[in-house]
């Protein structure tokens, strides 16, 4: 994520001055998106830049911020921006106490580590958290990158990030499993088959929400669902638990929205409650026999983030720990400070 954001800011007139990268993959990404920008230690990035991007994995961020503040690397008046979806600006308190200006700017996008990432930022929503006095600065940076700011309250950041992970990260798992099953069924080009179908399903869901539900669960076709479960147990037992969990949730939502007829739900829920050979699995929420309702790598200005494939979020996991990754840039106006 780091090189992509810095490259985008450079297009807006900022001047990247340094990048920190440890792994070969991070160095390649920096070289591809930020050619001729020197790769230095994290402290040197902060020494050169008025605007610093911290694009490390969520769990690495608190320790990184504390370490940078304790070593005196943070300067008063320096903009310190992290891109974690989980955290707001509270995680930057050690830097703020050292005089830094804290911002949380999380692009709701998956990153590949290639130039296509810069293009994808156009129109991308950013989850933004900032002190009141820095809201205009945060908004300006997002707009300069071609994004759309969406203000997220500090206490709502974990829920916001969970929502994105539920949609984006789990989607990758579902699609990958679907493609594997289609190959086992003899489909030569599962991606070509799924592309139009999933594209239409996503469009319908974004437009209509639960009203877009289709398929055997929403229809109450218990026999078809039973056949699915039997075939999955035979050919892909590792997918059964996920299929049953998603089918129960789908049944709950279809019932709640009047799509699944109650008189058809009993047989369906009986199928979904059928115990697997490995472990018993109860039925759907709120109904007889059912369970309760289911209710970036790098350092200063670093490499890819974690919210999505194929790195995704809050993207493969980043390959570097603290002290790796992408760019530091100069201040909000792109001057030579």
UniProtKB/TrEMBL annotation:
Listed Pfam families: DUF2520, Rossmann-like
Coiled-coil ranges from the UniProt annotation: none
Residue ranges occupied by any Putative oxidoreductase/dehydrogenase Rossmann-like domain in the UniProt entry: 2-107
Comp. bias intervals (Low complexity): 293-305
Residue span(s) of domain DUF2520: 124-249
Bias-annotated ranges (Gly residues): 322-331
Top-level taxon in the UniProt lineage: Bacteria
Region Disordered, residue ranges: 275-337
Name of this protein: Oxidoreductase
Organism: Streptomyces gulbargensis
């Amino acid at each position: 994520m780091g090189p992509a954001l810095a490259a985008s800011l450079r297009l807006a007139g900022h001047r990247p001055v340094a990048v920190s990268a440890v792994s070969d993959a991070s160095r390649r990404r920096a070289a591809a998106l930020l050619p001729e920008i020197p790769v230095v230690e994290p402290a040197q990035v902060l020494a050169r830049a008025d605007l610093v991007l911290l694009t490390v994995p969520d769990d690495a961020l608190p320790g990184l911020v504390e370490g940078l503040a304790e070593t005196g690397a943070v300067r008063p008046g320096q903009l310190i921006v992290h891109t974690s979806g989980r955290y707001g600006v509270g995680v930057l308190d050690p830097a703020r106490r050292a005089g830094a200006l804290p911002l949380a700017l999380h692009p709701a996008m998956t990153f590949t580590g290639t130039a296509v990432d810069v293009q994808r930022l156009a129109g991308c929503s950013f989850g933004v958290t900032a002190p009141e006095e820095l809201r205009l600065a945060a908004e300006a940076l997002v707009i300069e990158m071609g994004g759309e700011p969406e203000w997220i309250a500090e206490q709502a950041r974990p829920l916001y990030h969970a929502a994105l992970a539920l949609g984006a990260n789990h989607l990758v798992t579902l699609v990958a499993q679907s493609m594997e099953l289609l190959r086992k069924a003899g489909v030569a080009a599962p991606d070509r088959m799924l592309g139009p179908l999933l594209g239409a399903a996503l469009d319908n869901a974004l437009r209509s929400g639960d009203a877009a539900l289709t398929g055997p669960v929403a229809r109450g076709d218990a026999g078809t669902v039973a056949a699915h479960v039997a075939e999955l147990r035979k050919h892909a037992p590792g997918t059964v638990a996920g299929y049953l969990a998603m089918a129960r949730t789908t049944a709950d939502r279809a019932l709640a929205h009047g799509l699944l007829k109650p008189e058809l739900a009993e047989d369906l829920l009986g199928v979904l409650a059928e115990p697997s050979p490995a472990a018993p699995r109860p039925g759907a929420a709120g109904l007889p026999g059912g369970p309760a309702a289911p209710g970036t790598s790098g350092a200063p200005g670093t490499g890819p983030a974690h919210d999505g494939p194929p790195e995704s979020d809050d993207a493969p996991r980043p390959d570097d720990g603290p002290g790796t990754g992408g760019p530091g840039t100069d201040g909000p106006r792109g001057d030579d400070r």
